[in-house]
Amino acid sequence: MEFSSESSWVFLYTLANRFEADVLSDVLEKNGVPYLVRSFVETAYDGLFVPQRGWGQMLVPARYLSAARKLVASVLESLSAPKLYESIEELDPSLWDQLARRDPQDVCRRAAVTWHASHQSYRIPFLAGAYTCAPAQKVILPQEGLARPTVDFQTGLVLLHYLLEAQDLPLSGRWISEKEIPSGHQFFTGPHALPLDAVVRRMADAPPRLAEACAALGGVPVAFGDMGFALVVLPRIPVQCIYWHGDDEFRASLALRFDASITKHLHALDTIWAMVNVFVRHLMAALKTSSRNFEGT
User: Fold this and answer.
1) How many domains does the chain have?
2) Per-residue pLDDT tens for 285-296?
3) Same domain, residue pair 204 and 133
4) In this predicted structure, what is the pLDDT of residue 45?
5) In 10 A of CB 253, how many CB atoms?
6) Alpha-carbon distance 171 to 231, whole Å?
7) Residues 264 and 194 in one domain
């Protein structure tokens, strides 16, 4: 049930896909909250804005905004709860099918990866290591040099979308925060905020661990913040990891910066968010190894 009689409609939430739209619409309707769904797929623009703005937007009357935000937060928390979408077997089968139909030479050119014809698989550099992806067998395997050699749902999601979407384009040379990615200021909040606080807590008693961990992931120092490192997460997706020491006025903090071309290689904001989650898991694993090294000194 959508309503159009309310006079003052305000933005509530950026929808990543039809699934979110259906789930949130159902919850709002059951709780008596009027809403409007504005889809960028079903407009005359035929989905032109989807990579930049998300699948669509949900609006509610201003007087319902507070209650609607609480309902949305509750739903998103349940959707992101542990044991949901953890296994690579839960990936959309159409992603595998699309990749299996692609010309390997084209994929390699666009994504800057390597095709091994004898194994019918791609080698995908990731930080200081690599993954192997065999589309016909629907298999992704960790290879050498990975700090966290686990292949979960988000790892598979990111790698498949990267192989399908990456473009043979130069880097822009312009570094931006997640909030500067188109529609990022709306998307990367609440349950989609970048999970960087856990990294800061892990290294709070020994910030030099960050330097050791980033070096283990193939990072090189850059002159930003109190400590900064540039890392290549995927061949066409570099990331800067920037740390500021805390003091009496401000607490320690960590931020990520992305080359402005990132949406050319991962089209959807939720895929970029998943990529950051995977990166952070590798960084946390490298910090754990670094922690053991510090304890041994």
Assistant:
1) 3
2) 999 887 655 454
3) no
4) 38
5) 15
6) 14
7) yes
